[in-house]
Structures are given as C-alpha cells and as structure tokens.
Amino acid sequence: MKNKNNPHSQNETNKRRVLIVDDNKDFVLSLIDIMKPRDYVVETAYSAEEACKKIRDFDTHLALIDIHLGHSNGISLISEFKSANPDILCVMMTAYADIDTAIQSLHAGAYDYLRKPFEIRDLLATLDRCFEKIRLESEKSLAEEALKNRNLKLAEMNARLKMMVKSAKVVTSCHSQNELNKLLLKEFSQNMAADGGSLFLCHEDRLELAHSLDPDHVPSTIPLPLPEDSILCNVLRKRKPILIKDIKNIDEIRIKGSGWKGYNDGSLLVFPLINEKKKIIGLLSLHNKRWPPFTIQDLELGLILVSLSTEVLRSLQATESLQESESRFRTLVENIPGIVYRCEMDEDWTMHYISDMIENISGYPASDFIANRIRSFSSIIHPDDREMVSDVVHKAVKLRISFSLDYRIIDSNGNIKWIFERGQGVFAEDGKIQYLD
User: Fold this and answer.
1) How far is residue 160 from each of residues 226, 300, 303, measured CA to CA in Å?
2) CB neighbours of 121 closer than 8 A, spacing ≥ 6?
3) Alpha-carbon separation of residue 177 from 180, 182, 187, 280, 313 (angstroms)
4) Burial code of 382-403, b = ≥16 C-beta within 10 A, e = fewer?
5) How far apart are CA 317 and CA 326, in angstroms?
6) What is the value of pTM for the model shown?
7) d(Cα 53, Cα 140) in Å, to the nearest integer?
8) Cβ-Cβ contacts under 8 Å for 400 (sequence gap 6 or more)
9) 245-249 — which CB contacts under 8 Å span 24+ positions?
C-alpha cells in the first residue's frame, strides 16, 4: 500500500519496513535496538486502536503483532491489516503457553509466529524469510503485470493485423487506379486512426493530388522541385517515411511544415510509394489530431500496407498503360487498308489475331478465324495456291527473311480474289519460330 502521507523520506521507501504492535514498551524498544542498526524502518503501536491508525499511515511490509494486547486479541488485527493492505505479512508473537492460539492465528491469515522469549537469530531468520517471500511475491506480481500488458499489446497487434489483412483484400480487388486512390486513403486512415490524409502521384515537374480525405486543406498540384527543408522534400530525398509526433514542435527536427490549412497541429505520417525500379511514384500522408499521436508501430504497420499498395498501384498503372497501348494499336490496325494478322506456322495457319478488314475482303468475320473457331485461314486460300504459299513462307522462315507473294482466295460468295501478302517470322531466343506477322 502506497501512502502519500508516508512520514519516511524517499530513500527509506525501498528499505524493509516493519510495524511492531505490543503493549510492552521495553520489549518493543529492545526489538528496535536489534532492527534499526540492520537498516530496518520501524514504526510502533502499543494498542490495537493505535495499530489500526498506524497501518493506514505507515506503508509497511510486515507487522509483528503480540497476540495479547491488554484487553484486546492481536489476532483480530490480522483482518484489519489485510483490509488496509492485502499484501502485508503478519507474524504473531506469543508465549510458550499460547501455542494453540498461535496456530489459530495462522488459520486467521498470519504468515508465521514467534514464541517469546526468542533469540535474536530466530527473529532475524524469521524476518529474512518474510522479506524473501515479499520479494518473490513482488517479482511474481511484476511478471504477471508484464505478461498481462504483453498480452494486451499482442491482442491489439492481432486486431490491427486482422484489419490490415482485410484492407489488403480490399486494395487488391481494385480494378482501376482512381478506385485504388480512394481506397488507399480510406484503408490507411482506418488502420492508423487518421483524421485526414492525401495521396500525391509524382510527375517529372510536379506532384499531382490523386485523392484527399480533406481536399480543402491541400493544393491540387505542387510544383517540383520542393523547398529543401520541407517535409515532402525530406521524404523524396531520403526515400524513407517520416513520423512527426507533434507538428507544433516540428522545428526541433529542422524540417518545415507545408503550411497547409488544418495541418498546424497533431501528428503526421508520410510514406513514399516506391516501385520495383526504385522510383518514387507517389507520396501518401496521414494527419491525426487525436491523442495519442501516431507511433512507431503505426509507421511499421503502414510500411507493410505501403508495400502491398505500391505493387497494386504499379500493376494497375501497367495494366492501364497496356490497355491504352492496345487501344491505340487496335485503332491503328483497324484503319490500315489491308489485313493485319498473327498466326501459327502450321498447316492451317491458325490465327491468334486477324483484323476486321478480313471480313471486307473474304466476307467472313474475323472471329471465324481466331483459333480456327469456325474455319481455318488455309480453307479460303485457292486450292491451286496453297502449296505455293506454304513453300514461299517456309523458305523465308528458314532463311529468316521477310516474304511477299500474290495468291488467290475464295470469298464467302464463292468469288475468287487476288491477295498481296507481306510478312515475316517471329523467333524465340532459342531460334525456334513462334508465329508469323
């Protein structure tokens, strides 16, 4: 039991503290003479009433209690003392004739007893045994408290990791970059308990705002290069996240804030989004005005989510770039006044791709020829020209040169049409033919 009114000095708080309760003052003084030179802190009480007052003012480890206190029974003090301080040890002092009463005191909650008159060595041995138990109980209590705190932290971490796994599933399910931009900030803010935040994508000459939880606080674009002493420049230059626990004291780390409206207090986290080529493709910032501020644990968990998000962002950018390229290619191909194709070097010229212009020339839709879905391309070549076409193409492939030839096809109406074709083989690294273009 800790007591603010403890009369003993601070340097005595770690010493062994004992309360002696006995109505024999001479006996009490003899105990004090034994104990004080051995660095015990001793307090005395000469009656049950005085003892009940002292126990609430004196933060004691151990009470030496005489069983007979005038008209009172010292055993009754055990419950009083335990009520005031559950950790206190009570050692009863009794005469030889009162052994049964001493045993009774053990049943009432006393830790041990001493029979009067006792030798000094018996007293000191009992005290040592008591304080060893107190030490072990204290260590046990500290260990249990540490384990409890550790379990609470593990439970908290487990809950956060579960939330992060859920966020990972949400992020990886995105189908477009715009969708991902919004979800990134939403999931980050939930995982980090953030009040606001922004996602900027990096361009050659600027940072462009992709999404913000508080758009009125940040500009839509930020010109590059940034001021050398700014937060974002620090992240771009060092290529590492930054944690600022108190924006008001930001001058202590010699970095200047952005000065954006609403970002003048609280804590801040900024993560760089780095692709597989080690290039920064974006900056994600989170702002928190609540207490407690962002922690190192927030930063470490954020890095896990950043790593996953960067991969998803890179994949979506690559996919959208590929889709854009394919769209441009298709537009180009479909406007060429001729047939563009890619096929296998087999007997039927199995098509992987053939432009829609084939329908204008043959009367058959392009989908008929893809993977010989309905007909093979060789089926519309005039029978008298098939062997010649095959010979020319195979010879060109063998010599690894381009080819050109004229041949006839038979269209869907049975009409014969002349075709001029130019193409070449596409080879794998091992030299094997892959297909014709």
Assistant:
1) 34, 12, 13
2) none
3) 5, 9, 15, 16, 7
4) beebeeebeeebeebbeeeeeb
5) 14
6) 0.49
7) 30
8) 425, 427
9) 245/293, 245/294, 246/293
Mean pLDDT across 93-113: 81
In one letter, which amino acid is 252? Answer: E
**Is-contact 312 171, C-beta < 8 A?**
yes
Q: Are 110 and 98 in contact (CB under 8 A)?
A: no
Distance of CA 360 to the CA centre of its chain: 59
Residue appearing with tokens 């930054």: 242
The token pair at 183 is: 């979800």
Q: List alpha helices for 173-195, DSSP H.
A: 177-192
pLDDT tens-place string over residues 24-56: 999 999 999 999 999 999 999 999 999 999 998
Q: Which two tokens stand for residue 77?
A: 């003090």
Residue 375: how many other CB atoms lie within 10 Å: 14
Q: How far apart are CA 183 and CA 169, in angstroms?
A: 11
Residue 232 tokens, joined = 């974002």
Sheet holding 433-436, edge to edge: 351-354, 341-343, 433-436, 425-427
Q: How is 101-147 classified by DSSP, letter by letter?
A: HHHHHHHTT--EEEEES--HHHHHHHHHHHHHHHHHHHHHHHHHHHH
8 Å CB contact between 196 and 213: yes
Mean pLDDT along residues 242-269: 71
State whether residue 222 is helix, strand or coil. strand
